[in-house]
Structure formats: structure tokens, C-alpha cells
Amino acid sequence: QFLMANKLDTAMWISRLFTVYCSALFVLPLLGLHEAASFYQRALLANALTSALRLHQRLPHFQLSRAFLAQALLEDSCHYLLYSLIFVNSYPVTMSIFPVLLFSLLHAATYTKKVLDARSSNSLPFLRNLLEKLSANQQNILKFIACNEIFLMPATVFMLFSGQGSLLQPFIYYRFLTLRYSSRRNPYCRAKIYDPFLRIVVEHLIMKPSCPVFVRRLCLSSISFISRLAPTVA
């Protein structure tokens, strides 16, 4: 009765569980490398379906207008719908599947607890214990996802020069990253970009006398360029 009363949430729960299943079989290719590539695409397609359903839940009345598009781009579900479309037809990259896997796992765990509560307050204590441990590490998982999102930017550039990516992919992914940076619900990407730890480490290394001058200039120029790329947040 609980599942039937919440059909849209249940559909997203099933699609997230399927995303976790396909992502796990890609990361751990138990069925062979050839099958792993197909699971990569299935995971991203399932994530696109979940994101589309969530976007429909957030904005139920579709309008073909600039204002609606601007409102849709503020939603995290729209960001990950775009993310899935960026990578679904690209060369399989393990780094690109982790945000999809972990977000699906976190959201599926949250809804699984609701399903267990609807069934009985004491049902399946072992599973409840696992879900509680996952929830306790939620912030660390979200920080890891944010780092993954950031480091995928240079990875898309590397894929382009290695012949495994398209010319448009880095530019479209940069747009995705600016959307994540400006996210209203998930501040972790913005926090990690502002995190001075990596910048301090790089500056400490390049200021050593043993560092070549051209490397120092290149790193300082890169830091300045990346700082200018950061979008403004309202």
C-alpha cells in the first residue's frame, strides 16, 4: 500500500536500485569486460530516467519558455540529467560512474528506510544497521562526489587529446560544473573549489628554489585562470 500510494517515488527507488546494480557490475566486471561497457551505459540511462522523474516531480508543469528552462537549471536533478547525457555515449570512464553510483545509493537508502518503517518498526535490523552507517557517512560521501565532479574536468580534456572524447565534451562538462558550483541544495562542489588546501600545496611546491621557473609560471597562470572561471553565485 505504501509503494502504490507513492508511485513516482517508488519508480525512482527502483531505477536507483537498478543504477546501483549496473554501476557495481561496471566497477567490478564479474561478467566480463565486454558486458561491463553495456552496464556503464545502462547505469547512466537509468540515472537519466531517475533525474527526469525527479525533475518532473519538482517542476510538474512543463512550459516551453526561457523562464522554465532557467528554473529547471537550478534543480540538481537537471544537472545530473545533463551529466548522464554527457557521458552515456562516451568511452567508459570509471571516474564518471562514481557520482551516479553514490547518489543513487544514498537516495535509495533513504527511501528503503521509509519502506522498512512502513512495513514494521523492527523489520530487518541488519539492513537497518547498514543503512544507518551509510547515513552517518553521508557528508563524507558528498564531499567525495564533489571532488570527483571537479577532477572530471581535466579528465575530459585528457580524453579529448587521447582520442577517447569529443571536442564538445569538455565545454559541455564545464557548463555542468558551473551548475553544480551554483547549486542551492548541494554546496559541496563550491566548498571544494574554494578549499585552499590543494592550492596551498601546489604553491608551496612551486615556490621551492628547485622548481623550474617555467613550471612555476605555468602553475601560477593556471591557478589564476581557474579562479577567473569560477561563476558568480546569487
From TrEMBL:
Transmembrane segments: 12-33, 80-106, 150-174
Biological processes, Gene Ontology terms: endoplasmic reticulum tubular network organization; membrane organization
A cellular component term, taken from the record's GO annotations: membrane
Membrane topology qualifier: Multi-pass membrane protein
Subcellular location per the Swiss-Prot or TrEMBL entry: Membrane
Keyword Transmembrane attributed: yes
InterPro entries, alphabetized: PER33/POM33_regulator (IPR051645), TMEM33/Pom33 (IPR005344)
Record key words, sorted: Membrane, Transmembrane, Transmembrane helix
Family of the protein in this entry: Belongs to the PER33/POM33 family.
Protein name (record): TMM33 protein
Species of provenance: Balaeniceps rex (Shoebill)
